Amino acid sequence: MNLKHDVRTIARQFQIAGEFLEAAPYGSGHINDTYCVVFNKNGSRVRYIFHRINHHIFKQPLALMENVQRVTAHLAAKVAGEPDASRRVLTLISSRDGAAYFRDEIDNIWRAYIFIENARGYDAVESPAQALSAAKAFGRFQKLLADLPAPRLNDTIPDFHHTPKRFATLEETILDDVANRAKSARGEIQFALRHKAICSVLLSAKLPERVTHNDTKFNNVLIDDATGEGICVIDLDTVMPGLVLYDFGDMVRTTTSPAKEDERDLSKVTMQFPMFEALARGYLSSAAEFLTPAEKKFLPFSGKLITFETGIRFLTDYLAGDTYFKVHREGHNLDRCRTQFKLVESIEQQEEKMSQLMETL
Ligand code: ADP
Ligand code: GN1
Ligand code: MG
Q1: Where in the chain is the domain with CATH 3.30.200.20?
Q2: What stretches in the chain show pLDDT beneath 70?
C-alpha cells in the first residue's frame, strides 16, 4: 500500500524489537494521522498504534506530549496490580534516543503506543450496556486524574470548549463566507443563531475546573471483546483542565444516537432515552463521589450544549472551506452539522424527562 508517510522508516526510530512487517491507516479520527504498524517478534505478529500529530491544530505538540506522558504515568501507577493492568492505560514507546516522541526531518512529531488487543472502539453505539461501560470508564478516568500532581496541565488547544468563542468564530465565518457556501446552509445558520443563548450557560455557572478528557467520543474508549468493559480510554491529546460537563456532554452526543456522525438519513438520528439513562448510571457509578450538585444538575444540559457546539464547529468548517476536520466527500462537514442539530432537537424534546431521571439517581 502506498502511504502518505514513510511509516517503515519512522517505525525504526522507536525502541521496538523485531522486524517491520506492514503499516496501514487506522481508525476514523478527524485530526491526526493514525497507523496500525505490525512487527514480527520471534515469529509473532505484534501490533502498535502510531500517530502523526497534526501540528496545525495542536500548535505545541511537545507540550501535548508532556501532558500525555504525565497522564499515562499517573494512570499506570494507579491501576498497577489490577487484573490486566497493562491494557487499562495507554503505554508510550520511547524513541531510540529515549524521548516520548520522534521528530522527523520535516518536523512532524510521531509517537507510538502498544496496541491494546482483544478490545475495539465503535463509531456507533449498539446497546445500553456499551453506553454504561463507556461512561463508567470516562468517569473513572476523571476520578483517577483528580489528584494529578501540580503543575496544571498544558492547554493543548486554548479555549477548546469555550462555546461563546466558538459561536463568535461562526458569526465571523458567516460574514466572510470565503467559500461562498452560506447560501447552501441557510437553515443550519438560522438554527445556530436561534440557539446562541445556550452558549454561555456553563461558563456562567462557576463550575470547578478539573482534569478532563475533552474528546469523549464513544470511539475513544476501547470496549473489551470478552467482558464488554470499557477497558481503556484513548486519544489523550485534549486531556487538559476543563469542566466534567464537557466530557459527559460529548458522551451524550456520541453515545445516544444509533446513527453515525455523518449519517445522511436524519430520520435515524435520535437521542435514545435508554442510552442516556445507561450513560448517566455508568458515569455516576464512577463520578458521583466527587461531583458537586451543580455539576450533576447540568448533566442533561451538557449533552445539548456539546452537541450544539460540535454542530457549529462543523458548520464553521463547512463555511470556511473544510480547513480543520478531515473530509471524505463533498458537503461532509455540512452533513455532520445536520446530524448534530437534529440531535440537539431530539435532546430538547426530552430534556425535561432527562432532568427528572437525574433527580432519581
Ligand atoms: P484519532 O481519533 O485522533 O485518529 P485515536 O487515538 O483515537 O486517534 O486512534 C484511532 C483509532 O485507533 C481508535 O478509534 C482505536 O480504534 C484505535 N486505537 C488507538 N489507540 C489504540 C491502542 N493503543 N490499541 C488499540 N487500538 C487503538
Ligand atoms: C475531533 O480527533 P477526533 O476525531 O477524535 C475533534 C473533536 C470533535 C470530533 C468530532 C482536536 O476528534 O473535538 O468533537 O472530532 N478533535 C479536535 O467528531 O478538534
Ligand atoms: Mg479518536
Answers
A1: 7-117
A2: 1
